[in-house]
Fold this protein.
Amino acid sequence: MAAQRKKPTRSRKQTSPTGGGMLRRAGIAVVAAGILFGGGIAVGAWIAGGGSLPELSASRDLLGTPKGTTPAPAQTATKAPVPVQKPTQTAVQAEPGIPLPKMAKAVEAMKQAEAAPRPAPAPAQVAALPAKPPTADEGDLPAWRRYAVAADMSGGGPFIAIVLDDLGIDVRRSNRAVALPAPVTLAYLPYAEGLDSQTAAARNAGHELLVHIPMQPHGEDADPGPNALDMRLGAIEVLSRLDWDLARFSGYVGINNHMGSLFTESEEGMRLVAEGLRDRGLLFLDSLTSPKSVAASTVASYGVPTTVRDVFLDNTDSPEEVAMRLEQTEKVARKAGTAIAIGHPRDNTLAVLEDWIPKAKAAGFTLVPLTAVLDIRRGMATQQASRP
């Protein structure tokens, strides 16, 4: 019985492990290819239809990318298309690696700033320009012309200009000088008090004004007062002090030196003064406190109107000295046609002048401001220079 039973036999094709495996792998490959092919078709159709991920589309809109531009996907899409939603600022979701939240806030702030009303632009600030030099065409005059007192020249010469300096400190005597019955030239010390009111009263009385600039004298005992021009301090300090002195009051035609026997011997120092006067249109009267003075020649070389005094009235404070010096002044005027005498507001000087002024007018002298004598002398110099 056992011999008659036969075991069933399998074909080699069915029992071969190699053949079965190949069939299974081929089937899997076909299925995978089909899936990939179908997915690719779906993705292509989605792209062709203009679909876009809502998150990425909103982000690109915020960044300024025109709507309708197809974004390039960062990774290969394998999932089904997501329905397009209208982007809103509350629904913006940035994908990993794109730091959009801060950008969205910044864009929102920019939009709000643009929507806000803008203030009117402020007017442009125009830088102050330096003063234009005066020109004859414009009718503008330098200070020494603008503040000159008109002189009555109808009586003819000789012409005498009386200059009283050191004014402003002693107010009582300064006021007495202002009350003199003739047009005189008054030189005020820049460190005096109440100069605005004092000089205004002097101009209202018909007198010309000078700034009596303190300058370095010879000798350690001589004190010209504060803010004196002193070359030992250097050029910058000299210019600074000159600016301060000239800013103390207004309405003056120029300056003369207070002391300054050493400073007026310095060509370097007087060049600094000359530049300051030229720029301001002022004249210079050399009080001639040193026989070695180079002040007038140096200042004149810069085009500054310049002249020098002829007589000191009161080196000695006595009536006799003043009277004798006024006689000397008359002689100079008769000989040269003009004379400039300098005195000080002392009781003896003022008393003698009060008595002499009417007598001088009666004797044929014309008392005039300093600028009148300067004009006459400049005219004489021009005539002499034009002679062959």
Summary: The first strand starts at residue 159 and ends at 167. Strands lie at 159-167, 185-188, 208-215, 254-259, 283-286, 306-308, 311-312, 338-343, 366-367. The chain is about 45% helix and 10% strand.
